Amino acid sequence: MLKIAQISTNTITVPPKAYGGTQRDIHYLTEELVRRGHHVVLFAKKGSTAQATETFEYPTNDPEEQLEFIMSNLPDDVDIIHDHYGIVAKANPPIPTIRNSHSKGVTGVQIPVYVSKTILKRFGKNRGYYVHNGIRVNDYAFRKKKRSYLLFLGRLIEQKGVHLAIKVAQKTGKELIIAGTLNDRNYFNTQIKPHLNKRIRYVGPVGGKTKMNLLANASCVLFTSTWNEPFGLVLIEALASGTPVLGFKKGAVPEVLKGLPQLLCSNTKEMILKVKNHAGFPSAYRCRHYVRAHFSDSVMTDNFLKLYDKVIKGKKYKIIKNSTWNKKLKKIQNKELE
């Protein structure tokens, strides 16, 4: 049995109530580790409900105070720290620590870990490791019979290509439901709002059963992201629901859809043709099986446990005498003596 500290941010609860891919990963990993008999100490935002062995809720929004809080409550016999936030890894504790980056390259930490091989190579310069995201497949509603609408699910920003999903819907005559958080008001007002009507609808942020039903009933999900996606959680959420998802060959999308290459598109024109023909799409059962075999919470946990073992046995972490961790530790100890 390992004693593992999971470090989340103080921005979104674990699990998230709506949007929050990182926190959902932490949730699935935490509960699967506990289910396998490991002791998990979770540091997270107040209101988190993941079933860790122990949960500590941040009492402050100040990162420095959060670090002191973690250090004061971290068990002495913890085997490894899994930092999804960065504040612990940056302090360089004398404990095996991995810094899990869900989006970009990281420096100044013991062991960086990325969510895809693509990001490890592109931003991590092949320094560190990668472990794919995983989801609890049975949490996702499954429908073999689909309705006719297309679905866009994600943040409403230009890089996510919502305007391109609208173009696909208009060119194919399909109904489009747009769901997600409105992060760029100007983009929404100029590129999205003018096209909204009875057939192209924005339903706002979604979570829980509403999100699951939208995914499960869609004829196809459009993943129109135009930037180098670190992973693309919506891809596997759609497939777990038995729904094909079309995505551009950007970032880690080809890596995630490697086993279903017929779902990759070079451009909007190709995406339009595939929506029109709907030929060669994998069956609902094949979509779900693909996720269970490659991107489930169980597979993700297997891979992290292998990495934990490698890091602990390899002792690749550095003990830095004048690290932030040691300076903070002295400060905490002096406070206790006052």
UniProtKB/TrEMBL annotation:
One of its GO terms (molecular function) is glycosyltransferase activity. Transmembrane segments: none annotated. CDD domains: GT4_AviGT4-like. SUPFAM superfamilies: UDP-Glycosyltransferase/glycogen phosphorylase. Gene3D superfamilies: Glycogen Phosphorylase B. Residues 144-258 form the Glycosyl transferase family domain. PANTHER family: SULFOQUINOVOSYL TRANSFERASE SQD2. This is Glycosyltransferase family 4 protein. It comes from Paenibacillus arenilitoris.
